[in-house]
Model the fold of this input.
Amino acid sequence: MIYRPLLLAVLLIPMLVRADELPVAAFFGDYIGHLTMEDGIERDLSVSIAPADGDDRFSVKWTTVTHKADGRLKRAVYRIKFVPTDREHIYASAMKTNVFGRQVPLDPMQGDPFVWARIKGATLTVHALLITDDGGYEMQTYHRTLNDKGLVLEFIRKDSHEDIRHLQAQLTRIAG
Done:
């Protein structure tokens, strides 16, 4: 009988931890921000997190506009839809449709990124894994943490050997 409280605690702790995870709907909205790099290069950032077709499905669209030193602008836009997995708070990317009509992730062995998302606490993280031509890897991680202004974006890019880039910016919620 002395083990009953210990058993109860072991069974309840995972439920308490999971209760702290925000629902994906808490992240829905449009966010903008600006970042000046150490080298003086400026970037305008925007992120839109929105519901997609179906329960717990969502999309993340992010745009980066880089102001080049010569005055040119470089714009990159990405949009990825995510679907729930059998694992709580972990989402698979739905970037292509297979022969059965099901949306599935891309194939990293074909040079495509393998992308997934997770929610932990107030942070929505998107990971993108790329397998390089020499068999190494590059990992891009986007942590988007909610705060009273909107969200803090932390971007980490690393390869098989080292961190290549680490950026952080405050994005302001403008809608949602």
